[in-house]
Amino acid sequence: MAVEIPYVRDMTFEYGKADRVSPMIRRVVAENPSAFTFHGTGTYIIGQGAVAVIDPGPLLDSHVAALERALGPERVTHIVITHTHRDHSPAARPLKEATGAPTYGFGPHGSGRSDGGGEVEEGADRNFVPDVRVRDGDRIEGSGWTLEAVHTPGHTSNHLCYALLEENALFPGDHVMGWSTTVVSPPDGDMRAYMRSLERLQARGEEVFWPTHGPPIPEPQEFAAALLAHRREREDQITACLAGGRSTIPEMVETMYANVGRHLHAAAARSVLSHLIHMVETSRVCCDGPPGPDTVYRLE
Fold first, then answer.
1. Percent of the chain at pLDDT above 70?
2. pTM (predicted TM-score)
3. Residues paired with residue 78 on neighbouring β-strands, in sequence order
4. What is the pLDDT of residues 244-282, one digit of tens each?
5. 86-116 burial, b for 16+ CB within 10 Å, e for fewer?
6. What is the Rg, in whole angstroms, of the alpha carbon atoms belonging to the chain?
């Protein structure tokens, strides 16, 4: 029986308008909808008067203008980045130029990898370098609010979540999204790290997650548990494919994603590759040479 993920997809919003979604949080959604961003990037404004901005979003003039309208006379004291994909971090530059606020993040794209992160995938923001480098457990304090950083490599190696301590809430970026599973694409995406990070979020006590894409997740621990079960099920499906003689990623994708639109099969193949790398690392699958998109795989 397939794992059922309790997706949360109902979302009321208006592009360009700041919606107050909790006593301390406002959200402005960028008009960059896609198969990977849902309705678009949700930029969060934390606090009142002297505020933090989490994930300013894409370099989209209409969105930057909407943020400026939403902020009005308020003072931006912190620009906080979950990770360096082009739908999350590029608007940090014009926002910083307009406000003078420093940027906060783990580091440039790929900086969480042990190999130095020389190779980057499509969609990476190669230009972002934070003014302040944030590490796991660091606290960013402002006027009446406190964000605690949680390093969650997996979607990207430099991915950070931020807990808003005053509301017992977490901003999980793209690590957990209520409307869809997360793409984990090598080389910077790492399935083993992603699953470990999910386990870590599952063990935390926040009452609500505010993802960058989509509506809030009201029962986040149960949702994270379902995502973990889904990932383990995918690895069981890979094992079944290999046992049945389907030894290449395209063959596996055709079987595993038979009910998914073919326009998403390329992204699915990246995720299957990430699972296979994990399974090779844990000695459940083997191949000749390093695992890659064109490799022939077999059971150990």
1. 97
2. 0.95
3. 52
4. 999 999 999 999 999 888 988 998 999 999 999 999 999
5. bbbbbbbbbbbeebebebbbbbbbbbbbeee
6. 19
The tally of CA atoms less than 13 A away on the side-chain side of residue 159 is 26
Kindly give the interhelix angle for 220-243 and 265-281, rounded to the nearest 10 degrees. 80
Q: How far apart are CA 220 and CA 138, in angstroms?
A: 22
78 to 7, 130, 142, 156, 235: CA distances (angstroms):
31, 11, 8, 22, 40
> Helices marked H in the chain — which ranges?
61-71, 92-99, 191-202, 220-243, 249-256, 265-281
- Tell me the CB-side half-sphere exposure of residue 283, using CA atoms within 13 A: 0
Enumerate residues 6+ apart whose C-beta is below 8 A from 190: 153, 154, 157, 184, 274, 277, 278
Q: pLDDT tens for residues 188-237?
A: 999 999 999 999 999 999 999 999 999 999 999 999 999 999 999 999 99
Per the CB < 8 A criterion, the answer to whether 130 and 171 are in contact is: no
Phi and psi angles of residue 13, each rounded to the nearest 5 degrees, phi first: -165, 170
Contact between 107 and 149 (Cβ < 8 Å) = no
Query: Of the candidates 64, 93, 58, 96, which has an alpha carbon nearest to the alpha carbon of residue 77?
Result: 96
What angle do helix axes 220-243 and 249-256 make, rounded to 10 degrees?
Answer: 120
Q: How many residues does the chain have?
A: 300
